[in-house]
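Milestone M4 deliverable, item 7.
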Amino acid sequence: MTYCVGIRLNAGLVFLSDSRTNAGMDQISTYRKMMIYEEPGDRFMVMLSAGNLSVSQSVREILQVEKLANGDDEPITIWNAKSMFDAVRVLGSAVRRVYEQDGKSLKASGIDFNASMIFGGQIAGEAMRMFLVYSAGNFIEATRETCFFQVGESKYGKPILDRVLTPTTPLDEAAKCALVSMDSTLKSNLSVGLPLDLLVYAEGSLKSEQVVCIDAYNPYFKMIRDTWGQRLREVFEGIDDPRWDGGETAHPLMAPSGRFEVMRKITHPGERIV
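Output delivered:
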């Protein structure tokens, strides 16, 4: 399995992915799930992938040469697309082409055609954009109301993203939030694992400058893991325990409620249960 997160902010983009894949408990491998496509000064694009590894690897390779018909003009590729919308259309076409090639044989073998991608970046003259691409090749775009996407094992790392991220969040703070989200996922799910790939993109730069591969010995990520666990325990211990004895408390647990009724044994025919 995998866990990837992409964040779109006013200040830029943040991408984070793990690298574990497995086909059973005794077949665990490491593959990079972040691919960077760029022409410095002209365009910068990142794809994070989750799902069936053979499908996502095929999509990754086809994407570099996939073309969309464009009337009498030159076919659209990710390298000449004038907008990120056109670029993600090329990605959707690549997904559908892989399905046409491999979908039937995968189904015959009892394997689902399962792949999803986070695709984002910027083309010169256009604002940054980020999309979530589904197995059918269709997609949705990140907005101010939904400024991040997750693929893979998303449930463990979502709460911190929901509580912290807004479009105005600074890039470094968003990168920290993404790493805490990843740490929560690593703690709870063995199908997600190190090393991690982290990329932070500043709006308008049109090139990748802040990219790092994070292993178990990375000092900043070790600090995140230790500090986040410690602070969570401190916050937990700072919350009052529930009081059942009716003592004075500003936050009583035994508040009046008519929602629950106790089921009682019927001792006389026709007696109503109350």
